[in-house]
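Entry type: protein chain
Record version: 2
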Amino acid sequence: MSTSGDKPSIVFFGTGPVAAASLDLLTNSFTIEAVITKPRPPHHKGSVPVLELATKLGTRTITANNAKELSELIAQESFVSRVGVLIDFGIIVRQDVIDAFPLGIINSHFSLLPEWRGADPITFSILSGQKLTGVSLMKVVEKLDEGDILAFGLVDLDGTETNQSLTNGLINSVLRSCEITSHTILKVPRSFLRKIAAVVPEVDYPHIASYSHKISKIDGVLDLSKPAIQLEREVRAYLAGLGAAQM
């Protein structure tokens, strides 16, 4: 196991605001050998959360625009870290990138997989009016959000959540003594690095596969012919979600 002092070493993959918040928390318990993220887009004047945080932390940063470029860059690297952690990255990771880490790559996804695979699970959890969501921590495979689950946490929804408040809750909350998101990530990779099997709690939940597509500004245009309850969900789901990268 690669460590710096008492801290295990990881390579972090991430781009958006959820990734930045998670990276900030991970620095407390892990040595971040490198951050791999998307570069600042040309003419982009807004925030690039992970890139900005990595610069602030003084962490070595590698940027890639797409899967092909990522594979080419990883082929030139020789990391000390035996595991990667991927959150809110926005680039498909190919098998050669996964294989660059002896213990693979761990991903945190903000839904109870296989529900809401894809780009925007938080938004679709609110839009669907469901009563329960959570975080799934899994091993990355080439197929989207289909890797083995290592651990997860549950979060009840009361129908008042906004995109931002639910995001914050999934990042920071602890529910029913099952630590989620940053807390689960802190626990499981350490066990994973030591090759200790994670125990996934049984949950009475319908494991039906569904998909969340990447939202755009047109999604935020309200259609007043829809039922009031659906419009209310759309306001809560889209208000803070549009323009913010989701996992």
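Comment: Residues 82 and 101 are 5 Å apart (CA to CA).
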